Amino acid sequence: MEPEQETDRGQNSKIYYLNNSNKKGNYPQHNLSNQLASVCQQIKELQPILPVYCLRPHILQHATRFFLDNFLHHKHQTKVMYSVKSNPDEAVLKQMFASGIVNFDVASFVEIQLIHSLFGDKAKMFFMHPIKAKEVIKEAYFNYNIRHFSLDSFDELEKILLATNNAKDLGLHLRISIPNSHSAIDLSGKFGILPSESVSLLRKIRSVAETCGICFHVGSQCMDPLEYRNAIDVVKNIINQSAVKLDVLDVGGGFPSIYPGMAPQGLQSYFHEIFDSIAKANFAPSCQIWCEPGRALVAEAGSLVVRVEGRKNNMLYLNDGTYGGLFDAGHPGFIYPAKAMRFGENSVNLNSELAPFGFYGPTCDSLDTMHGPFYLPSNIATGDYIEIGQLGAYSCSIRTNFNGFNNYLQIQVGCNPLSSLYFSEKQVQLNQQNNSN
Ligand SMILES: Cc1ncc(COP(=O)(O)O)c(C=O)c1O
User: Do residues 420 and 335 share a domain?
Assistant: First the structure.
């Protein structure tokens, strides 16, 4: 591990710079006994000028165990793979592995190398990106022991067969396109073959693959469990028409987290829809059921603490934004739970009365704007900190270095998240009170 650079900031505190080059391995050991200090305690101590990612190892462990213990079926074998793209942070991956996740959905050569470097042969990877470079398929098959690939066209099938020298031990998973009408992020346009065009490709896959699968994605942050039932009904039709024996049904990701204005049903309802509709289909008992959650596993385990650098009316200028860890607050307009913290110089307490605020990020671009509304104390001011919750997913993985604002800190914390799909509101509030400054 490379040493952190330390720079004096005032008399008592230091700025800990974490550059892209030395992020690796710079994490304290996990302590799941909940003895880790809270966000407030640690931010008060650090008073950082950089954004700070707060990782909650105990929540990550809880979410992981929840999926492994509940995504189960009495008849069909099941598998939970973690979708690495949602958060490829090493501390996150190691915690997940320690909690029992050994299967990983990877989408790029960098993700493949990362998982291999961390877990070697103990991890199994599944290359579930429907369009891949032929060189990467070759590397994946011959050097990383990857046998499972998704695809949505005859061209991609030919590419995979060529790159693997017509391997006989392939698992090939046909990605079908299904409506994403109840999801915050629609993924239906870019990948997936239309069900009406899928029969001949599925038959071809069956004839060359050792394992023949169908996969789909209902869209990220899927708000209606019925979407999975509808998608499985589409799969049933394809199977009936093609008369192909299916070895794997992969229901993808899409499992939601909880955000202001987006409070989904519990994850059990999603599992119920999936397994109930599967029970009513006549898939062979040997057919395995897989899922590839990203967001639901990591979102609430991570939050981001930002500092207010300026205020104009109800717009706050922050030290992070849409080019950094808050991409989804800009373009798709996600609203996140937010909690203000005030330390030190400002002797006036934060108001209990809340007002709606929008955010500007630190870059020069006007697109770096987040309308929210984010509800915060009406007298929030320059120098205050804001913890923004549910940013364990699709935040650090999307950051850019635009305008040189990619530096950040990471800490591990023992308090519960600002909101939770796994714990009751009462449990979250109680824990927040216990951990407030
Ligand atoms: C192939 C695939 N699997 C799984 C996921 C994870 O989705 P989510 O984070 O919505 O669970 C994605 C997200 O884009 C994906 O493309």
Answer: yes
